[in-house]
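Posting here for the record, re: zinc ion.
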Amino acid sequence: MQDASQVLSRIFGYDSFRGEQQEIIDHVIGGGDALVLMPTGGGKSLCYQIPALVRPGVGVVISPLIALMQDQVDALTALGVKAGFLNSTLDLDERRVVEAQFVAGELDLLYLAPEGLASGSALRLLERGRISLFAIDEAHCVSQWGHDFRPDYLALSVLHERWPDVPRIALTATATTATRTEIAQRLQLTEARLFVSSFDRPNIQYRIVPKNDPKKQLLELLRTEHPGDAGIIYCLSRASVEKTAEFLVQQGIDALPYHAGLDAATRAANQSRFLREDGMIMVATIAFGMGIDKPDVRFVAHLDLPKSVEGYYQETGRAGRDGLPSTAWLTYGLQDVVQQRKMIEGSAGDAAYRRGLAAHLDAMLALCETVQCRRVQLLAYFGQVSEACGNCDTCLVPPESWDGTVPAQKLLSTVLRLQRERNQRFGAGQSIDILLGRKTDKVAQHRHEELTVFGIGTELQESEWRGVVRQLLAQGLLAVQGEHGTLALTDASADVLGRRREVMMRREPERAARSSGSSRK
Ligand code: ADP
Ligand code: ZN
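Prediction output follows.
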């Protein structure tokens, strides 16, 4: 039997373990259960692959990433590791071959989709072989809060009941305490040793900018900072994925679309071009990316606001796995907030579920509107204390905060007057037109020029007013309601209107962070 460091060098060709890999591997080889939280690119795979090679029997890896199993198995086979997989893409004959290899103990690793476990067919197969360990990859899929929830994962607790002596290692890049607790409980891993790696990705520069003209802003990012670089651009909807990819291609940029509405063959072809060709850009919904191991993704851009900090961190974590400087760039605007609030309001699920979604969105908004270091705030969200990083937009060009109490009062009283005096609700645009004293058709139609607030807000420009609305929404001092996204007061609004509360706001720096000497080109 070889020991772990021999396997590391002889089979995988690496000289040393990274981070906590060695401790994790020793623990699992010794028969212990483990819950491993490590950022994307941290090197989770070796944590189960090496114990599977060292311990007698077959290591069974449960993974939801069916589309990647073939690639993973091919990569292992190329290293001389005996690996196979079982999922719905195999036909009956192929399946029989792998099953026979497993039962005969001819495999080191067997990758398994979680589907069969609940039905029992996979369990009956597993009982016929000798198992060295269970690895549960992407373990956050068991969490009902996350956007990756897979009901089949709930059945995985059966593994412990049937094979109490086989060590289990659950791995994920999602790390909030809530998710961690949920994973441990649902997978019966409360007794498992917990390994939490630092979540910092120092080579990623985080930047969040106001959305003015997103296409133009994106193009500038690509042309000035990342020409010819590989990257991922996330959009919220399939339609905007298509449009953005088309736009980039028209501009002579190599971009491919990826979303769940494309047929499987197109998705597979685009994914494989992205992985194999240099400098490809994938424009995608969040359906793309889990398990993608491409080391030289130089940027991840978000054209729409992510629904949670977890999602944002996981998506941006796909940049710079090779450790070289990379950019995480997000543009967001008032419309994003309105749209997401509407989606939450219209979502299926009970009130508690919607409150959960709203809390996730609020944390994301707080990150967007922060005046402190983005990384400090991100890591704090994952329970880690750190110092200002010097490599994010707020560190590079510190935004000023300003006392926005008076504008906040003006805006809130406009909403209040429309509500009280006219029994009317409007979106942000109408309130801003009123404050700016604009005599639009809609203003004339509703005789809004007669309101006492008409024209009292000319000290700010329209874009600044939109920023005020955005920040009031982010701070919970204003709400968005209904399918038209109309503005409404919240309980907290009264404190601002009653002068009992000050409102500090973030002023966007004049220059973008990239002009501060941090750019690569
Ligand atoms: P994760 O699953 O945590 O996202 P992977 O297991 O895919 O990360 O590893 C990320 C990259 O780091 C891979 O290319 C892997 O080969 C490499 N890697 C992992 N461990 C080591 C190590 N000890 N030394 C060098 N490279 C490593
Ligand atoms: Zn910083």
